[in-house]
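Action item from last week, closing it out:
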Amino acid sequence: MRFKCAELKEYQIVGKPLSKTNEKTPIYKMRIFAPDEIVAKSRFWYFLRQLKKVRKVNGEILRMTLVSNSSPTKIKNFGIWVRYDSRSGSHNMYREYRDVSTTGAVTQCYRDMAARHRARAHSIQIMKVEEVKAGDCKRPIIKQMHNSTLKFPLPHRILKYNKKSIFVAERPSTMQ
């Protein structure tokens, strides 16, 4: 999967194998994170071929929808179950991220896996993505953001010159 610089999009794809006779065939639905529709369809057929032995030639896509974010202004905690192939074998992982959208958290996950584990985008499989409550978070780096009295220092503040004269004899102090 070619990973473009933009954030990934979430697609919901519904497909089924073609029936040779008029028998009922099962319908499969998947959540796919991809940069565009073409890659999303490709990943859908890749996973369906692996899981259910259905090839693109012997199947059809019934519906493909782009999933939008429900509340884009609220920060949420996301738990992501990942499977990836490394040089030594296949590994399962659980990772946590904070973001305003599911797609943002998954994008963070892909970039984090590339940085920490040298995992390429094509070798990463997102098994499940879930919104996690603050009390259920496991990772300390996420838990530290749940403090209600959390404050960030503002070390290098620039003075506003609307009250003071611009030309003065001494330099302004920006470290207070």
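Closing note: Residues 37-52 form the longest helix (16 residues).
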